[in-house]
Design brief:
It contains 18 helices and 10 strands. By secondary structure, it is α/β, with parallel strands linked by helices.
C-alpha cells in the first residue's frame, strides 16, 4: 500500500519543475539546468518569486515516489553500443541532464569504465508502484534510485540485492568508514527492523541533505541583529523572533511549515527522539517531545511570532520565500530556491536547547535482486559511492564521504554555505529521518493529525501522548 505524496517529496518536485530552465546550484541539485557548469547562487536579489513554497506545495529529498497519478516513463534516445559494451539501466525520477545530482556522474563513470554504458530512464508519478510492477514483469532495470520515503517499500518487497558480499570484497576501496553511520543504516534492518529478508546492506547512499536555519539577512539587519553562531540557544531564537515580528507589516520571526521533518529537529534539540533506538516504537508522546512541541505551539498561537498558518497557503501565501519571515528550517537544497529571493540571506547551525540536533537525508541506489547484470551494476554503484564518484559529485552536492567533502566539498557554491554545510554534513548532531509504516498511520498521517496544534484547537500535552498510543497500537500489529 502506497503512502500519499509527502510535503518533502512535493517540494523537491516543485524545485525540479519550477527551476527547469535554471542553472544548478549547491546541494543535491534537483533543478533541470540548461548549462553544464552550475552557477553560483546569487547572494541577494533574484527574479520575483511567484509561489511561496510551503509544506503542502513543496520539497525535500525525494522522489515522485508516492504521487497518486499514473506513472510516466521517459527514456532517452537508444544509445549506440559498440560490441563488448554492457548497458546498465538506471531508473530515477529526474530528467536526464549533465548537472543533476542524479546523473551528472554518468560521463565520468563511462570515461573511467568504457566497457559499460549507462541507460537512463525517468519515471514520474507513482514511482514505487511503477518500478515494483516493472520488476515483476521483466528484469531490464538494473539500478534503482531511492529516497527515504521510498527505500522502505523496495526493501519490504524484497527487490534489493544484499550488497554485503560485494562490500566485503571491495571494502578497502569503497571508504564506507568515512560515511556517517546513519546514511548506511538507511538500507538495513537498523532502520527497518521488520524486514523479512534479514540483516544485510541493501543499498548505498550517494548524496546527502542536511538541514540548517536559513535567515533573511536584510530583515535581521533592519532589526539590529545578525546571523547567530553555532551554540545559539532556544532563548536566543525566541528573542530574535520577537525582534523580527511586526504584524502591521505582515512580517514575522519564523515560518513554521507544520511539517514533520523540520519539527523533528526541535525534538532532538530538546533531548527527545521520534522513535526508540530499535526503531520499533514511537516516542513523540514522551515529555521531551511534548515540551518541544509546546514551545513551538506557544510561539505560534500565543506569542504570534510565527507566520500565521492560514497565511502560508492559498492564493497569495506569505513566508520566508516571499520575505515575510526572518528564519526557516530547511535543508541545503534551499539554495536552489535562493535565486528567486528578493533579499540577502544567510544560514546558521540550528539552535540548541538540551542538545544539538538536526535532520539528515540521503539519496542512494539499490541493485535489482533479479538483474541479470548484477556484477556490472555493482561496478557502477561501487564507483559512484566510492571515492571517484563522490569526488565527481562533491563540488556542487553534499556527499556522504566525509573525507571527500573536506577535500573538494561544495567548491562551486557560495562560501557561507560551504563553510557551514561541509562540516555539518558529517557532524554527530545529524539524525536520519524517522521511518515507520502502517496504512493510515504513516508519518504523513501523523503530520495531518498535528495540524490542530498550530490553530490552537488542541494542546501538545494532551494530543501527543494520545496519538503516540494510537500509532503504537497500530505498529504493534503485523504488516498487512
Amino acid at each position: 500500500m502506497l503512502r500519499k505524496l509527502s510535503p518533502r517529496l512535493a517540494l523537491l518536485i516543485a524545485i525540479s519543475l519550477l527551476l527547469a530552465a535554471c542553472g544548478g546550484t549547491s546541494a543535491p541539485n534537483t533543478s533541470i539546468p540548461t548549462d553544464t557548469v552550475p552557477p553560483v547562487a546569487p547572494e541577494a536579489t533574484g527574479t520575483t518569486a511567484t509561489t511561496e513554497i510551503t509544506a503542502t506545495t513543496a520539497p525535500t529529498v525525494a522522489a515522485m515516489a508516492n504521487t497518486p497519478v499514473i506513472g510516466t516513463v521517459t527514456v532517452g534516445p537508444t544509445p549506440v553500443v559498440p560490441a563488448g559494451v554492457t548497458t546498465i539501466k538506471v531508473v530515477d525520477w529526474v530528467p536526464e541532464n549533465t548537472s543533476s545530482w542524479a546523473n551528472r556522474w554518468y560521463k565520468p563513470f563511462e570515461d573511467a569504465n568504457p566497457d559499460i554504458k549507462i541507460v537512463h530512464e525517468q519515471i514520474t508519478g507513482n514511482y514505487i508502484e511503477t518500478v515494483l510492477t516493472r520488476l515483476t514483469g521483466s528484469n531490464d532495470i538494473d539500478l534503482i534510485f531511492v529516497a527515504p520515503d521510498s527505500v522502505g517499500s523496495f526493501l519490504r518487497a524484497g527487490a534489493a540485492l544484499d550488497l554485503s558480499p560485494n562490500i566485503a570484497k571491495d571494502k578497502a576501496t569503497l571508504q564506507l568508514d568515512k560515511f556517517p553511520q546513519w546514511t548506511l543504516d538507511d538500507y538495513t534492518t537498523v532502520r527497518y527492523p521488520e524486514l523479512k529478508v534479514g540483516p544485510g546492506q541493501y543499498g548505498l547512499p550517494v548524496v546527502e541533505f542536511v538541514w540548517e536555519m536559513w535567515h533573511n539577512a536584510d530583515m535581521e539587519k533592519a532589526a539590529g541583529i545578525s546571523t547567530p553562531q553555532r551554540g545559539w540557544t532556544w532563548d536566543d531564537f525566541v528573542s530574535m523572533s520577537k525582534k523580527l515580528t511586526d504584524p502591521s507589516k505582515r512580517q514575522y520571526g519564523y515560518q513554521n511549515q507544520a511539517w514533520l521533518l523540520p519539527l523533528w529537529t526541535w525534538v532532538w534539540q530538546n533531548g527527545g527522539d521520534a522513535m526508540t533506538p530499535d526503531a520499533k516504537t514511537l516516542t513523540f508522546g514522551e515529555q521531551p517531545s511534548v515540551d518541544a512541541f509546546t514551545f513551538l505551539q506557544n510561539l505560534q498561537v500565543n506569542d504570534k511570532v510565527f507566520v500565521p498558518i492560514d497565511q502560508t497557503t492559498g492564493a497569495n501565501p506569505i513566508g520566508f520565500d516571499s520575505g515575510a519571515a526572518g528564519m526557516i528550517t530547511r535543508g541545503n537544497w534551499n539554495l536552489d530556491l535562493s535565486r528567486d529571493w528578493k533579499f540577502k540571506w544567510d544560514l546558521s547551525y540550528p539552535p540548541k536547547n538540551k542538545a544539538e540536533g538536526t535532520l539528515g537525508e540521503e539519496l542512494g541506489m539499490i541493485i535489482n535482486k533479479n538483474s541479470p547484470k548484477k556484477d556490472a551494476a555493482w561496478r557502477v554503484l561501487s564507483w559512484v559511492a566510492g571515492p571517484d564518484g563522490q569526488r565527481a559529485l562533491a563540488p556542487t552536492d553534499v556527499v556522504p564521504n566525509t573525507a571527500v567533502m573536506r577535500e573538494v566539498g561544495l567548491q562551486a557554491v557560495p562560501e557561507n554555505v560551504r563553510n557551514l554545510v561541509v562540516p555539518l554534513s558529517g557532524d554527530p548532531m545529524v539524525h536520519s529521518s524517522p521511518q515507520w509504516f502502517r496504512p493510515k498511520y504513516t508519518s504523513n498521517d501523523l503530520n495531518d493529525r498535528l495540524a490542530v496544534l498550530w490553530t490552537g484547537e488542541k494542546k501538545a500535552a494532551d494530543l501527543l501522548p494520545a496519538l503516540e498510543k494510537e500509532f503504537n497500537d497500530a505498529l504493534a500489529k503485523p504488516l498487512p
